[in-house]
Amino acid sequence: MIHLGAIVGxxxxxxxxxxxxxxxxxxxxMIAEVAKGSGVSRFIFASTCSVYGASDQVLDERSxxxxxxxxxxxxxxxxxxxxxxxxxxFAPVILRFGDDLWLVGTHAFRFSCQSADRQGDRGAGHxxxxxxxxxxxxxxxxxGAGGLQGAG
Length: 152
Fold this sequence. Notes:
Elements: E1 2-3, H1 10-15, H2 17-37, E2 42-48, H3 70-85, E3 91-97, E4 99-104, E5 107-110, H4 111-119, E6 134-136, H5 137-149
Parallel strand pairs: 1-2, 2-3, 4-6
Antiparallel strand pairs: 4-5
Helix pairs in contact: 2-3
């Protein structure tokens, strides 16, 4: 099972904090418990690199968590819930995704820059220079498939 559902991103989560917790944490717990009770053996969870906060360092899954938003905190809490549910018959796989890289013809677009533009997150005359990991949709598909198959 692959669980992708969530209210995503800091601005969207800030609109209704209670709803964010209900969907990002409580619904994740309920979906995972139902999946486990139904005999699902592998549960892929789409988390986020936002759990690391802002950093000038190159980070990996062993890096310290430093959430700076409700979105990141809700994902960390969900990860903890999933780890507690893990046993010999139920194996959660947590994928901490970065930004999407969309290839359209010969042009590549970073989703984070486009969404920042739409939401007015950058000042007039400024360019979007945020360092965040980016992944193509094909890379994400391979990660999900590898997680389902039990690959490293």
